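Example with several molecule types.
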Amino acid sequence: MEVLCAFNPGASMVNGRRLMLLRVAERPIQEKGWISTAVMDAESGELRILRFQQGDPKLDASDPRAIIYDGVIYLTSISHLRVAVSEGRGAFQVASQSALTGSGAYETYGVEDARITRLDDTYYVNYTGVSENGVTTILSKTEDFQNFEKLGVMFGPDNKDVALFPEKIGGKYYTLHRPAPRHLGTLAIWLASSDDLLNWGRHQVVLKPRPGAWDCERIGAGASPIRTEEGWLELYHGVDFRTRYCSGAVLLDLEKPWKVIARSEQPFFTPETDYETGGFMPGVVFNNGLIQVDDDRLELYYGAADETTCMATASIRSILDSLK
Amino acid sequence: MEVLCAFNPGASMVNGRRLMLLRVAERPIQEKGWISTAVMDAESGELRILRFQQGDPKLDASDPRAIIYDGVIYLTSISHLRVAVSEGRGAFQVASQSALTGSGAYETYGVEDARITRLDDTYYVNYTGVSENGVTTILSKTEDFQNFEKLGVMFGPDNKDVALFPEKIGGKYYTLHRPAPRHLGTLAIWLASSDDLLNWGRHQVVLKPRPGAWDCERIGAGASPIRTEEGWLELYHGVDFRTRYCSGAVLLDLEKPWKVIARSEQPFFTPETDYETGGFMPGVVFNNGLIQVDDDRLELYYGAADETTCMATASIRSILDSLK
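Resulting structure tokens for the full complex:
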């Protein structure tokens, strides 16, 4: 296997150190004339290599992220989650082993795009589990980022971009989530509530794509919302008709988080550098890891072009001032 | 408005009488050269008529159930739920008014396909809420089938064919549901559990479509599972590659309802009569209303061709004997 990309990290301060959970995408070393990928066997837990001959009329390899063979969809890589830690402001040390690897029936195509939320002195890590059963969100918890307890599928397929609120509101847990309906409806951000983090209900739409805007095609939540005096600040991604991924913000009512107070007319963060406008998936900045270092300053850990992991800083005040 | 169809009833014995909750589909009386439909305004609660000129190049009216205009999907009719009651074994009297009508943001295209489950001396009615936000399942409860309390969206979009188990198992409520994922995965039957009927979690797949079989394209649960000595008997619908809807059965473990004991190799109920093989949607029998009249005998209230409401009887023993 070879590492294809390391991107879309979850992030958190853990015991005074910056910690990322990187999505590490691997694939078999490619042979000439063949396209190959790997899936995890749900029963044995072993990797299984799948090989497809280039030029096979049943093969559609036009999307760099997917292989479609005879109508069946596979991914071109399989991801696991790996810890990287930075002492102070120094470089990140990437662990030599996986922290969280796909297992069971809902993760045969891998685990992706972690979000880390500290709640009640426990770190909850939710991530995307991909398999032939669909794209689901799975909740896990950990104390040390070495041992994870998988708590089951939070939302059935397709659902991703799940961002837990970092505290209870009115006695209930809340989360943002992003169903992807097949027949009707847009790729919008929904809100759900829970008494125990495991069972979720009272689903409602909070934010929809806007026709003609930078976020016209689809939107999805990033990391956990940030509490500010003016409301919950959520940094989300929006995708336009050219599949360009940018970051914008929405401000939600502190007590009634289904109420939108303000929203970015324009993105505050767009693909600009060559590693953002080019690469594996050109034109993508995707942020699901956020560390608040003081009252105003945010560090955004983000994936560029579904390939590399980058960091940017932002001012909460200036983002709030930009909202309408 | 005119009634187009009355079909896909939920059913239950209520105070010793047979009761159906019919799906009544209405549309504006059609004018020559135009196709029109109606949607409920989420704010005002008033019906709004939409008119499309036949032959407009932006109009796609090829599916009898849907109108697609400029990429936006509408339904050709709007449904409400209406009570019909039979004294003894006599004819059903259909109420003159709606029992449950679409309201709010998740029911603007109407409410469809009720399932009735008696739990803790309350009748729970779950139904499909259709709107521009997607196809969701909404839970309501009633004591008298006149006043309904809507309890919110159980499952975000797309999700329908929700069948609650009629009693707790191991201290938890269970339900079957059918997500319709956009990107990956099949139209399969999932199981979820709950402590309170409102919040659901621990989602897992229990039954998938089978390539090449009568249920190859999609499957979905019917009415609530029936307790038998051998397991939970669920009558479900399966759809083949010609969009033919038939009924089959699956037997689930009494204590571990995620375990499949047996399943129909062939459907026990198929479209045969002219009102099943012809009509609004030819080739459809769809059962979501079931009344168990004694230890062995079932009455299946079902929709034929998405148009009419019919009744068939079946023997639990003979269905169980047909499973493999």
